[in-house]
Design brief:
Length: 302
């Protein structure tokens, strides 16, 4: 009498069989191997279909972005603007992690009135200063001016204006050195959130010509700061936190240089690489060739 496969199956419980004990002992059956191959093939086909769908969507977006545009530089900047809008959510996540921003502040950064909420919170709730109608008007005017950015300044400098406003009001209303009592964490979160908010607003509401100028200014400022720190507070204000201890926290040049970088610093590498390729497209090409190249590049990103 021989002991066959079916007899061996009878030696195990149904739970063991369902868990795949026979496959462990003997390897997968031919049927199981075929089933796995078919599943893998269907998975690969689905992946290809999804990638093609994404590619087609990006292609259509690129076509729409440069439709009717004749200037090569403007074509590139329109496509680069799309790259920025695509990547902003990822950048927000990376920025928030690097700044250790609480979830509330990350969500607040997307609010149109984020700056007003931050300044009123610092003065009214933290410093306990009465928010009179006059003070609220001043806060609103400051925040609107910072968002308009008529002088084309980087977020770091614009947020410096907000910090100086908070310090001046605290000193003027509560007395000399009152700013020394402002808590470290509260001020740090205000500054970090304000920079993020301004970066989001710029990408959401400004064209790429403006964004390009701000990006280049941020790049130059950051590079210069790393090589030779600028101690002129009127140009690049140093954010100093006292944290209610009366002890000044040391501020290092590389810390300040990091905060001068544009939001693109937090983009994925593949997106930054793509933007560099787009930026390097030959502007002396014909209009048709330029359009085809830009559409191809933008739609190629997975």
């Amino acid at each position: 009498m021989t002991f066959g496969y079916e007899d061996e199956r009878g030696a195990f419980t149904q739970d063991e069989l369902d868990a795949g004990i026979m496959g462990i002992l003997h390897g997968p059956s031919e049927y199981e191997l075929e089933r796995r191959k078919e599943a893998a093939y269907l998975h690969d086909q689905k992946e290809k279909e999804l990638k093609e769908e994404v590619r087609k969507t990006r292609e259509n977006r690129a076509i729409k972005a440069i439709a009717g545009v004749r200037l090569p530089m403007q074509m590139k900047r329109n496509i680069l603007g799309l790259c920025q809008k695509d990547e902003i959510n990822y950048a927000i996540g990376r920025y928030a992690k690097s700044e250790s921003l609480p979830h509330y502040h990350v969500e607040l950064s997307r609010d149109p009135h984020c700056l007003e909420v931050l300044v009123k919170g610092m003065l009214g709730k933290v410093a306990k200063i009465p928010l009179t109608d006059k003070l609220v008007e001043e806060i609103t005017a400051l925040c609107e001016q910072v968002r308009r950015n008529e002088d084309i300044e980087i977020p770091y400098v614009r947020v410096g204006r907000i910090q100086r406003f908070v310090h001046e009001k605290t000193e003027n209303i509560l007395g000399n050195n009152a700013r020394l009592e402002l808590p470290l964490v509260h001020m740090k979160n205000l500054l970090s959130t304000a920079r993020l908010h301004l970066s989001i607003c710029d990408i959401d509401k400004r064209d790429y010509n403006y964004l390009h100028e701000v990006r280049e200014l941020a790049k130059v400022a950051s590079q210069c700061e790393e090589v030779s720190p600028n101690m002129n507070q009127a140009i690049y204000p140093t954010y100093i936190y006292w944290g209610g201890t009366g002890v000044i926290k040391n501020i290092f040049p590389k810390w300040r240089a990091r905060h001068m970088k544009s939001i693109e610093h937090y983009f994925q590498k593949k997106t930054r690489d793509l933007m560099l390729k787009i930026d390097n497209v030959d502007e002396h090409s014909t209009s048709a060739d330029m359009q085809l190249k830009l559409i191809e590049l933008y739609s190629s990103l997975d």
